[in-house]
Amino acid sequence: MSAEAVSSPGRLVDRIPTLDGAEMIAHLVPPRQFATATLDSYRPDRDYPSQGASVAAIRNFVAGWHSGRGGGFFSRRKTPVGLPGIYLDGGFGVGKTHLLAALWHAAPGRIYFGTFIEYTALVGALGYAPAVKLFTGASLICIDEFELDDPGDTRLMSRLLNQLASSGTRIAATSNTPPNALGEGRFAAQDFLREIDSLAARFTTIRVDGLDYRRRDVEAHAVTSTDAAAGISVIPGESTLDSFDEMLVHLGSVHPSRYVKIVEGLAVIGLTGVHPFANQTDALRFVAFVDRLYDAQVRIVAEGTPLDGVFPDEMLAGGYRKKYLRAVSRLIALTNGVD
Questions:
Q1: Pair (227, 303) in one structural domain
Q2: Which pLDDT value is given to residue 184?
Q3: Which residues form a coiled coil (predicted)?
């Protein structure tokens, strides 16, 4: 076994990140597993024709972009470019992020890619006016996991996007529909279009059906360990080992916009004493942290309650259900070691 594999782990709680506005915006790129994503590399499931149709819709969006150069994407004059916004609605793990990243790679100009949480965290950390200044002039803003469960954040993003759109920025967004949601994507899409107000008429809505690919070839539960320290020692790369409670306290002391720096350079984290959440604040911080772990493909080795069981039923039945179900899907993948 290499020296790297057996080196002593660090601690998440010792990672005190700092991040200024320029650094925050520099991190707004697709996660590393989508660094080379293209429409050709997307593998649609033939059992779900909407996946192939979504690829065609993205191709049309890109083609309309190039054919409309010079007139401004939000120009009032009629051009053959189609609607300047696109919204992908569907369940977990059907490839919406891959499609969004493929669009990002195909787009010209100054472009940004981030989750809804990343954008709202950035605005919260910098302030609204500085954030607008940073994004003004962008040709495309990609928003993964657009969320409607916090009215304040939704209105904030709607205001920001309206202001950017008025200057010619194109918008692309995705959202998740829980597998057992009434009405599937139809209600999710209607909610999205209603909440973004005047931007709604500018969006083409695309439904993407399918199964969660993260659960296709692995056990549909988070893997637990009897010895997290031993578990992380056999995974090469930089590692940390913390108690679940200490990690939660640390996350509470760091602005979510800086979580990306906490996970930077890590290959695996170990957690001991995992237990169900007792309050929603800790749960929501953990969801934001899981998103950053998933983007960086950081493995998790955990002792205690399986990580797909840390969100109590009353939380899963509440207004943040989408967030928690997305986190569960990702925790299953990260503990199984699946990209």
A1: yes
A2: 43
A3: none
Q: Side chain identity at 318, as an amino acid letter? A: G
pLDDT for res 308: 93
| Element housing 101 (H / E) | helix 96-106
- Nearest CA to 339 among 299, 287, 291? 299
The token pair that represents 21 in the structure block: 């506005």
Residue 157 and residue 13 share a domain? no
pLDDT at 278 over 80: yes
Residues 221 and 179 both lie in one domain = no
pLDDT of residue 19: 75
* Residues 50 and 107 both lie in one domain: yes
Which of 178, 193, 211 represents a domain boundary (last residue)? 211
The answer for residues whose C-beta is within 8 angstroms of residue 231's C-beta and 6 or more apart is 225, 270, 301
Of the candidates 173, 23, 175, which has an alpha carbon nearest to the alpha carbon of residue 90? 175
Report pLDDT digits (tens) over 82-119: 667 888 888 777 889 899 999 999 988 899 999 888 89
Which 3-state string (H, E, C) describes 167-232? CCCEEEEEEECCCCCCCCHHHHHHHHHHHCHHHHHHEEEEEECCCCHHHCCCCCCCCCCCCHHHHH
* pLDDT for res 5: 42
> Do 205 and 193 touch, CB atoms closer than 8 A?
yes
3-class secondary structure, 300: strand
Residue 115: which domain range? 21-211
Check whether residue 152 and residue 71 sit in a common domain.
yes
Residues 184 and 253 in one domain: no
Q: Is 51 left (phi over 0), alpha (psi -120 to 50) or beta?
A: alpha
Q: Does one domain contain both 47 and 153? A: yes
Per-residue pLDDT, 202: 72
pLDDT at 197: 63
